[in-house]
Amino acid sequence: MENLAEAFLGLSREDFSLLGAIETGMRTHEWVPTFIISKLAGLSASKSEYRLQHLFEKKLVVREAQHYLGYQINFDSYDLLALSDFVRRDQVKSIGERIGVGKESVVLEAQGYASLAIKFHRQGRTSFKHVRRLRDHLKDKPRVPWLYAASLAARREFAVMEKLYPKVSIPRPVAISRHALAMEYVPGPLLNKITLSDPEEGLRLILQEVGRALDLDIVHSDLSEFNIMITDSGPVIIDWPQAVDAAHPHSDELLKRDLGNVLRFFRSKYRIDMPLEEALTAVREAERI
């Protein structure tokens, strides 16, 4: 969605009631019938039909007619429901520009009592089988609809961040709603966007943060130059939805892959040739600090 704030201001309380009713109905229906939407929203059938047509024209719902007319919400409307929840709880006061787009997320700048970044998870229909196969928090839920896969991913990431902060250098987690995670805004470029003045020290500090996370029994599992930010106070590691516990049967393999990605980047850009075993030793030493 190009302008989330504009779309938010263009919706009525009835519109949000209908979107929330469809969300609830999708727990048990692939396509939610209009009579169920009307009942859950507490609106008359005629009012519901009128407002649903309005939401359909805004492309905030999709519908399908088989032996009945059924509705689904999409990620745009899910974003609006999450934002509405943040606003209702007085955690977000304004929403800004898009500041990041990843494989499975969109990040917007926002303002609460401090500067925030809101990450909207985007695990979708096409990638869901892959998500279900690889991620701990979905392994016992083989029939979870795609919208709730995104919600589960956000909750998992938020829980990991709460466990890591403040011992590990990550953005401070602030709030969660559905598939959206509000966190402290961290100013600074990604590692792949800048040239470090002291790359040896930069690598040492990154390995130190990996070790601190491991000390809390967490392995990032998707670490690379694309999710390490560089600030005046040092590296900040972001994007934790794929993190696993140290007790995970593949945690050692995933840790080595994380370190391999980082070492490959420093070898390519800075000609620093640190062996994997040396990096593992540095991580283990940081873990004991």
From TrEMBL:
Record's GO cellular component terms: cytosol; preribosome, small subunit precursor
Coiled-coil region(s): none
Keywords recorded for this protein, A-Z: ATP-binding, Kinase, Magnesium, Metal-binding, Nucleotide-binding, Serine/threonine-protein kinase, Transferase
Enzyme Commission numbers on file: 2.7.11.1
Catalytic activity: L-threonyl-[protein] + ATP = O-phospho-L-threonyl-[protein] + ADP + H(+); L-seryl-[protein] + ATP = O-phospho-L-seryl-[protein] + ADP + H(+)
SMART domains per UniProt: RIO
Keyword Nucleotide-binding applies: yes
InterPro entries: Kinase-like_dom_sf, Rio2, RIO2_wHTH_N, RIO_dom, RIO_kinase, WH-like_DNA-bd_sf, WH_DNA-bd_sf
GO biological process: maturation of SSU-rRNA
Domain RIO kinase: 64-285
Family designation: Belongs to the protein kinase superfamily. RIO-type Ser/Thr kinase family.
Name of the protein this chain belongs to: non-specific serine/threonine protein kinase
